[in-house]
Amino acid sequence: MALEREQVSLRLYTAIATAYYWTYDDPAAATADQTLKRTALSRYVKLLFLVKKYARQNATIADIFAEYVAKQPEKVCFVFEGREWTFREVSDYSNRVANVFHTHGYKHGDVVGLVMENRPEFVGTWLGLSKLGVIIPLINHNLRKNALLHSITVAKCNALVYSEALCEAIGEITESLPSTMALYQFNDAIQQTVLANSKDLATLLQSASKELPTTNVKKASHHDQLLYIYTSGTTGLPKAAVITHSRYLFITAAIHIVAGFSPNDVFYTPLPLYHTAGGMMSIGQALIFGATVAIRKKFSASQYFTDCQKYNCTVGQYIGEMCRYILATPESGNDKDHKVRLIFGNGLRPQIWPQFVERFNIPRVAEFYGATEGNANIVNIDNTVGAIGFVSRIIPSVYPISIIRADPATGEPIRGKDGLCQLCQPNEPGVFIGKILPNNPSRAFLGYVDKGASEKKIVRDIFKKGDSGFLSGDLLVADERGNLYFKDRTGDTFRWKGENVSTSEVEAEVSNASGYRDTVVYGVEIPNLEGRAGMAAILDPEGQVDLVKLADTLKQSLPSYARPMFVRLLTKVDMTGTFKLKKLDLQKEGFDPNVIEDAVFYLSPKGAYERLTKEAYEQIKRGEIRF
To answer: Domain named AMP-dependent synthetase/ligase: which ranges (predicted)?
Structure first.
């Protein structure tokens, strides 16, 4: 029925959109606009047909992958550090994983956490566990101590798989983990030393069967939970967002179809595989569509297009910060010596977009927008510079997403006299929402493992009493044609180095490291850099904060992207105002020593906090001191 409704909407939309054609003064503009609408709609309907097909089959991600293993067993599935993994090899590896954990008693509904750097075994491990119906939280391998411990325990893991490279990080929290939690250490070689109370997974895998276990195995279903992918919300530590098999399929298929990917493409991703972008949108191209994916362990600006050339990649993935780093590398005769026909990602700023595609000869950019846990996802399909997607202003019911008026500081919707939300006008910034339809995988909001956190992301009574939607927390703006542009984040979360940073988490760590002093953390803009750099203001009237200790402690307790780039030592706090207002005042002052009387320090490339002089401030503005 849902698909039939979409088809009716398509026919109705086409009729009205055709009439709308004649409202243009410029026939060429009208033709281009209608072509865009029809392309977007035809691809969306194609997506719905594919999703419906796999729903009828009750297919899991492993089921779909098995189809390609049978069709093309010797085709290259993954390329990593010079080694090619065929579809058969990935299947065999995942089956070995499934057999090891099956013999150890793991079953449908159990939770096994995975913390491992980028590598094919990362995918093979969660894919194998999913064949048992096990749920796999994909944990950020950059996290340490409290944040890492929280990510493991909040998911209620029965076991944890970690790689040899993460031994030190796991060792730091072992005593705090539940005594019932089993530990599996994956080493690069067999018969190697493992942490106390850990099992040697590499050795266990060597003797395991490569056939799919079927005895006493309860198969997962299409709508069962598959993964937990962590995301930083507006407050607190990382939240575990629920990803079902159907959700994984929809996200992967949506970017594939709407952006115009092909199974013959070779994808390149240096993004972390524990996030949606790398772990679903790129890896899913192999699992769901039989394409080849080249994986890099860690992003390198100088090697990005060298790798693309080396592996004959046709599609490259990015986040905006990466594009700036790549553009900053010295020009080379090899800049255009590649086969990349399209790049896709989020955060490519319009200020560098034209220069990037010109220098590296990129025919198409598929900029997208979406949240891991959300249901409001869009893609730029027509190369409009700076746009993150398109939505019709004629019949929004075809794809029910909206921009509503909201307080930019809090993200709270601004309601009318009738108590309902108000739509923004063209070029008016507002909060982006997606209508929730529980029985439609493209419109459902699965939320977080923490149900209380899920409820905070839902806005109710939007355009009529009783309806609901996912509240993104992002400020967007739409032009007259329906092209959407990202403006900023609302509330207490800011974005830096491609990651969402929760101020409350950083405030707690900075306060602890500075002797439990009053601390406020916020994001500040640095000229020509994407996102906002973290800045911590610490109440220190006696000048007793040890900046050396602060830097060393934060290096241990926070991932690099969450560490404050600037520290301001406050001599006094205006106690007459609210904390929120003071925070906004501090943010407005930024890190300019010309207007700030307090001592300000910046995190130098040496990893120490150094005094921010007026000269250093100008060097930062010119990009001579880099972050």
So the answer is: 65-414
**Any idea where the domains of the chain sit in the sequence?**
391-489, 495-622
| Residue 56 burial (CB count, 10 A) | 9
Backbone angles phi, psi at 240, to 5 degrees: -90, 110
Q: Contacts for 183-186 with beta carbons within 8 Å, 24 or more apart?
A: 183/159, 184/159, 184/160, 186/116, 186/121, 186/125, 186/161, 186/162
Model's pTM, two decimal places?
0.80
Quote the Cα angle for 545-549-555, to 5°. 125
CATH of domain 391-489: 2.30.38.10
Q: Are strands 458-460 and 468-478 parallel, antiparallel or unpaired?
A: antiparallel
Residue whose tokens read 């977080």: 448
Q: What is the pLDDT of residues 370-406, one digit of tens each?
A: 888 888 789 998 999 999 998 766 555 556 789 999 9
> What is the phi/psi pair of residue 317, to 5°?
-110, 150
- DSSP output for 73-117: TTSEEEEETTEEEEHHHHHHHHHHHHHHHHHTT--TT-BEEEE--
Q: Is 332 helix (H, G, I), strand (E, B) or coil?
A: coil
Strands 159-163, 182-186: pairing is parallel
Fold identical between 391-489 and 495-622? no
User: Quick count: other Cβ atoms within 10 Å of Cβ 137?
Assistant: 24
- Judged against a pLDDT cut of 50, whether residue 578 lies above it is answered with no
Which superfamily is assigned to 495-622 in CATH? ANL, C-terminal domain (3.30.300.30)
